[in-house]
Write a structure and sequence with these properties.
single chain, N-utilizing Substance Protein B Homolog, Chain A, 6 helices, 0% strand, globular
C-alpha cells in the first residue's frame, strides 16, 4: 500500500493533469482549478477524494508552474517530437501530462528523475492504458529529462 504522503502527491499530480486539460479546453483559471482541488472536486477518478487529501503545494507548483513557463515547456517538448509533428497535434490529455511532467522535472530537483517519470507514466496508463500513447509520453519525458537533468543518468 502506498504511504499517505505518496498517495497525496499522486492525487495532486493526477488533479494537476486534469486541471491543465480543463484549463486548455475551457479557459478556466489556475485559481479556479486550485479551488476545485481544495474542495475535493479534483482529481476525478474512480476513487472519491475528500477535501484536503491531496498535496496542495505540489498541485500549485505544477499548475501555476506550467502557466508561468508554458512557452518554454512547449518548446522543450516540441524539440523532442518526431519531424513533422507539432505539439498541437498531440492529444490534449497527453499534452497536459507532458507539460506537468516537464515542469516537475524542472522545478522539483528533490525528487529523483525516474520517480517523476514513473508517476506520469502511471497517469498516462490511467487515461490510455498500456498503449503507444503511453510509450510516446515515456520517451518524450525521458528525452526532456535528459535535457533538464543531464547528470541524472536517465535512460
Amino acid at each position: 500500500m502506498i504511504a499517505a504522503e505518496a498517495q497525496a502527491r499522486r492525487r495532486a499530480r493526477l488533479a494537476a493533469v486534469q486541471a491543465l486539460y480543463q484549463m486548455e479546453l475551457s479557459g478556466a483559471t489556475p485559481s479556479a482549478m486550485r479551488d476545485d482541488f481544495d474542495a475535493g472536486r479534483l482529481p476525478v477518478d474512480e476513487e472519491a477524494v475528500a477535501p484536503g487529501e491531496g498535496d496542495m503545494a505540489l498541485f500549485e507548483a505544477i499548475v501555476f508552474g506550467v502557466v508561468e513557463q508554458q512557452g518554454a515547456i512547449d518548446r522543450a517538448i516540441s524539440q523532442r517530437l518526431a519531424r513533422n509533428w507539432r505539439l498541437d497535434r498531440i492529444d490534449s490529455v497527453a499534452r497536459a501530462i507532458l507539460r506537468a511532467g516537464v515542469v516537475e522535472l524542472w522545478r522539483r530537483r528533490d525528487i529523483d528523475t525516474p520517480i517523476v517519470i514513473d508517476e506520469y507514466i502511471e497517469i498516462a496508463k490511467s487515461f490510455f492504458g498500456d498503449t503507444a500513447e503511453t510509450g510516446f509520453i515515456n520517451a518524450a519525458l525521458d528525452a526532456c529529462a535528459k535535457d533538464a537533468r543531464p547528470d541524472a543518468g536517465v535512460g
